[in-house]
Write a structure and sequence with these properties.
By secondary structure, the chain is mainly alpha-helical. It has a single domain, classed as Ammonium transporter fold. Helices cover 56% and strands 5% of the residues. The chain contains 15 helices and four strands. Strands 1-2 form a two-stranded antiparallel ribbon. The longest helix has 31 residues.
Length: 481
């Protein structure tokens, strides 16, 4: 907070300055709140979910990787990556100017946190908030993306290799995708939309996770054969944090506390509920019992599918996305996973399905169900941001949006796959990507020195029972010499 001195009884004491005239306190407050909700989706949300869904000996490792990823992305984001995704186009890369529509010029944001934000973000019609609010808001989106991809390689990725890989991946993959679709880059200029990250976050995470799993290799055979969660309650808590945290994920992306934010929140919850119910319905129709893990997959599918569409579709569109996406991902996870190349890759948590397939489906379905009465679209020009009218899909007579949604998806898939493969190989030259077999056999104790459920009873045990422990008869076990 900026402070200004004032004289009181011959002494100067600091008093807070009022907000500048350009700042909208309501919009700024909502943006910081929404960002915090998104941050909670990563830590503790995904950390808790991963810690519960993995086998006992991988619980600590899964949570540690989540916290480490969150931390390294924040450093990278404020030192150079934010401006690559949302800064001034780097036109000096090419005389043709093409690369200026491809990536922003890197640079730190450590000394410009109090100024009014100025950028070419297509969704922003108002810029009534400080740059620091946007930097943090966009950071939590950047941080959750590699944490999602991490779900594909749990149980064998080397902790030491994952950290530098994340730093490189945010720089060369995430920042590029973000600039192209959110920072006023090539696809944004041609009308492609991604309300909160169906492509930038989920499709890229699904592709990156799948490629990483293929390069690093599968888990131990016994981990694949006995793939049971160690704590289902943790899974439920983590899933619940994801569901409600998504209110900030999608509700914060109008960058204002307005009717578009409210519609995005309602659409998010509606699509998710429908996707969950459809997943359970398919379990019954295919002769399976509806499990909590399966229900969580359906929930995540709905959350991901509505993400690129939340502010562009009406309630009927949200229901349609929930039905279609849940059906597609259910079939892919249960049947497509049995054929090449999917059956040859050990994607630990099926990220390529619940995030890759769901993000792709949601992004393409925007091109079909986008309602011109829901949200304005914006384009960049030499004069800055200009409103281009409403975003309309095929059912409203516009095929152009679907075309550019397809082109953007193809680019994200190809760019993410090629760069992820190259970055993994580069890191692998210096640090083994795969954990040692000895450590994979032991798990958390070998990697981190402790386990998720440490025993307070000495390892030698008590042949005649633990002293003081009540028996079934209600009597304490006698102490032994």
């Amino acid at each position: 907070m900026s402070l200004a001195p004032t004289a009181v009884k011959d002494k100067e004491i600091p008093l807070p300055l009022e907000a500048p005239t350009w700042l909208n306190s309501g919009d700024t407050s909502w943006q910081i709140t929404a960002a915090t909700l998104v941050g909670l989706m990563s830590v503790p949300g995904l950390a808790v979910l991963y810690g519960g869904v993995m086998q006992k000996r991988w619980s600590i490792n899964s949570m540690m990787l989540s916290f480490a990823t969150f931390s390294i992305v924040l450093f990278v984001w404020v030192v150079w990556a934010f401006h690559m995704g949302f800064g001034t186009p780097w036109r000096g890369l090419s005389h043709s100017g093409f690369f200026g529509n491809f990536i922003g010029k890197p640079g730190p944001v450590l000394s410009h946190t109090q100024e009014q934000h100025q950028s070419n973000i297509p969704l922003i019609g108002s810029q009534s908030f400080p740059k620091s609010a946007l930097v943090y808001f966009q950071f939590v989106f950047a941080a959750i993306t590699p944490i999602l991809a991490l779900g594909s390689v749990l149980g064998r990725v080397n902790f030491k290799a994952w950290i530098p890989f994340c730093a490189l991946w945010i720089t060369f993959v995430y920042a590029v995708d973000a600039f192209l679709l959110w920072g006023g880059g090539f696809f944004a200029q041609h009308g492609a939309v991604d309300f909160s990250g169906g492509y930038v976050i989920h499709l890229s995470a699904g592709v990156a996770g799948f490629v990483s799993a293929a390069v690093i290799g599968p888990r131990l055979q016994r981990d694949r054969e006995i793939d049971a969660p160690n704590n289902v309650a943790m899974v439920a808590v983590g899933a619940g944090l994801l569901w409600l945290g998504w209110n900030g994920f999608n509700g914060g992306d109008p960058y204002a506390s307005n009717m578009s934010a409210a519609a995005a929140v309602l659409n998010t919850n509606l699509c998710t509920a429908i996707a969950f119910l459809v997943w359970v319905g398919w379990d019954y129709l295919t002769g399976r019992k509806p499990s909590l893990i399966g229900g969580v997959n359906g929930m995540i599918t709905g959350l991901v599918a509505i993400t690129p569409a939340a502010g562009y579709v009406n309630g009927w569109g949200a229901i349609a996305l929930g039905i279609i996406a849940s059906t597609i991902v259910y079939m892919a996870l249960n049947y497509l996973s049995r054929v090449r190349p999917f059956r040859r890759v050990d994607d630990t948590l099926g990220v390529v399905y619940t995030h890759g397939f769901a993000g792709l489906a949601g992004g393409l379905l925007v091109g079909i169900f986008a309602d011109p009465g829901m949200a304005l679209g914006y384009k960049t020009s030499k004069h800055g941001l200009i409103a281009t009218g409403n975003v309309a899909g095929v059912i409203h007579g516009n095929w152009t949006l679907l075309k550019w949604q397809l082109f953007a998806a193809l680019f994200v898939i190809c760019w993410t796959a090629v760069c992820t493969f190259g970055l993994l190989k580069l890191v692998g030259v210096f640090i083994p990507l795969r954990m040692s077999t000895e450590n994979m056999e032991v798990g958390d104790v070998a990697e981190h020195g402790h386990e998720v459920y440490p025993s307070d009873v000495p390892s030698l045990g008590f042949p005649d029972g633990v002293p003081g422990l009540a028996t079934e008869a209600g009597q304490a076990t006698p102490r032994t010499a």
